[in-house]
Amino acid sequence: MELSERKMKILQAIVRNYLETGEPVGSRTISKYTDLNLSSATIRNEMADLEEMEYIVQPHTSAGRIPTDLGYRVYVDTMMKEKDKEVEELKVNLLEKEERLDQLLKQTAKLLATNTNYASMVSAPSIHQNKLKLIQLSRVNEMQLLAVIVVEGNVIKNTLLDVSEPISEETVLKLNILLNTHLTGLAVEEINLGLITSLKAQAGIHSNIVSDVIDAVAKTIHDDDDLEIYTSGTNNIFKYPELADSSSASELIGAFEEKRTLNELVVKTLAESEETGIKVYIGNESPVSTMKDCSIVTATYDLGEGMKGTIGIIGPKRMDYEKVVDNLKDVMRQLDSIYKK
Amino acid sequence: MELSERKMKILQAIVRNYLETGEPVGSRTISKYTDLNLSSATIRNEMADLEEMEYIVQPHTSAGRIPTDLGYRVYVDTMMKEKDKEVEELKVNLLEKEERLDQLLKQTAKLLATNTNYASMVSAPSIHQNKLKLIQLSRVNEMQLLAVIVVEGNVIKNTLLDVSEPISEETVLKLNILLNTHLTGLAVEEINLGLITSLKAQAGIHSNIVSDVIDAVAKTIHDDDDLEIYTSGTNNIFKYPELADSSSASELIGAFEEKRTLNELVVKTLAESEETGIKVYIGNESPVSTMKDCSIVTATYDLGEGMKGTIGIIGPKRMDYEKVVDNLKDVMRQLDSIYKK
DNA sequence: GTTAGCACTCAAATCTATCGAGTGCTAACA
DNA sequence: TGTTAGCACTCGATAGATTTGAGTGCTAAC
């Protein structure tokens, strides 16, 4: 059976209505609140067809219809097509300028959560393909060194190193020069064994410090342990009865706390990110199984210099996709303009 | 009326039973499951007294009794007295050695949550009264400086400074020496206006960098914005029906997300921490109003060098206080031994 | 002081009846 | 042939009515 123009309109009307109310929608409602001017009986016939085509279902006999995942899907797809053309002039709250990236991202998560009334997450950019910008060793005391590592995009990490034997200021200075002249500007992949051994040789008795520093660099650059993910508005899920019962709520809240779960989401999103960067997962399409009953809208942001991250909105399947997509687009634009100051 | 030995025993029995079941407990249950060998009728008489004394209440006529906040209070107090003498040999899971304090604390929160089945929070140590150990400026590029600040206890913070005019390596070196010779070893309170102006004078045209650095130091040392609090097991609250209904759950989850709320708890706890360090807040005693229906057990840990923080367990009023206190004590001991390696 | 016995209370569970939104189908109509 | 009015039917939801049972308080006897 073909999805005629009219069926499409009816399906859209059903979805829209269901998004608002959360209640199954009946034929009479559609007949009244659309400009189709059809009687409820006609609508019923069409709805029977739509049900056969698996775009909608009845939760039980003698109830209205609700969209299936497939139904949502065609709704979202057509909507996204329209969105592409449209230049929205949406005025959402603005992100404040923030010199610290982590604060900015936290703020982003919060903003999205309050604007949309769904739960949000923002992953800190992964810095895989980044280049070293600066290595700075400082003597804290005789037996301890502080290594500060800065990579492209101004991501900074510190590590304290314990040294095996007392070390003087001059040695530290020499090591600094040695490391910086040879390592600055290099990407991790370029730091190979040959280079390392050569450096160690030049460092003489302090070769073990060189190893330690290089270890620290490696750890800094792909440290999956402390992958930062900021979340906000997790308690918004209580606003949607279909998610608020304790078992599903508990599962969801758990997933939000366990950053590992969210990380999967981030990884999968980054892997399949396309030009537009916005992707919608409905129900079972979700990359993480704990969110089968939700919809997830993700966007990939790119701050340049290889700093890519993921922003996600998680809500019920009947989320206001339009609003969410608009909000995401807007936030991305803002991030862009702030960060490329 | 006096709280006789027998009444005390009955009260304890009521509380214990209620902790387990969460159901109002009746006279028959008590008469059967205690070694008092009293009939239910006698128990009833005693319970009537206990009710008059406001240690227990009936949720409604013809229901069993449940403890009031006051009832819990005397229960907890007597229990704590016994605990003090006892040397528990509790074997809970061990914290793994972790070089990074934040990871260790995250782990602590998780451990407590899984061991107790309640929600947990651990605040990173506040570093208020700490001394500067090291200031290190590095030139990232012509217009940017990286300031690394290390305080007692090896807490490290970085800030990027934009400078108004190009700066050379030598100037940076000079500034480093200037700042370190004058500031190292000082507590924040000791950095007064006089010192600052003198430093600025010596810095000449780069006086504004000095201000920036000192601002950064101040911000580092009492930065309430990014007070780190790690939480875990928030979804455990769904295990207790009295907290799981969506309105209270939402409120609690919200409080856990909004670190500001937890911060209040931390501040208040630190303010009134005593020698033992363990404190129990029952219901309305709670310092934060969103947790009126919960009990909170907090402990203050002290890693030396002024690094004090708070650990808290949040659960229903009918929490297993004994287990929680044991767990907290154990974790404190472990933290102590790990950190003072 | 303790206990058995009994009337009483009240939340929770179970049952029953009613309501109404919504459907599918049929027959009539344009 | 597509649309519509009409009607019987279904079934969740809501509201009362009824029953059940755990628990109480009180009294009288031990």
Structure notes:
Two copies of one chain form a homodimer. By secondary structure, chain A is an alpha+beta fold. The first copy, chain A, contains twelve helices and ten strands. The first copy, chain A, is elongated and about 90 Å long. The model of chain A has no long low-confidence stretch (mean pLDDT 87). Chain B binds a DNA duplex (30 and 30 nucleotides) through helix 3.
Give the SSE layout.
The structure is a homodimer of 341-residue chains.
Chain A: H1 5-21, H2 27-32, H3 40-52, E1 56-57, E2 66-67, H4 69-85, H5 101-116, E3 119-123, E4 132-141, E5 144-151, E6 155-162, H6 169-183, H7 193-203, H8 207-221, E7 229-232, H9 241-244, H10 246-257, H11 259-271, E8 278-282, E9 294-302, E10 308-316, H12 321-339
Antiparallel strand pairs in A: 1-2, 3-7, 3-10, 4-5, 5-6, 8-9, 9-10
Helix pairs in contact in A: 5-12, 7-8
Chain B binds a DNA duplex (30 and 30 nucleotides) through residues 24, 26-28, 38-42, 44-45, 47-48, 58-64.
Tags for this model:
DNA-binding; alpha+beta; elongated; Enolase-like, domain 1; 5-stranded antiparallel beta sheet; 341 residues; Arc Repressor Mutant, subunit A; homodimer; 12 helices
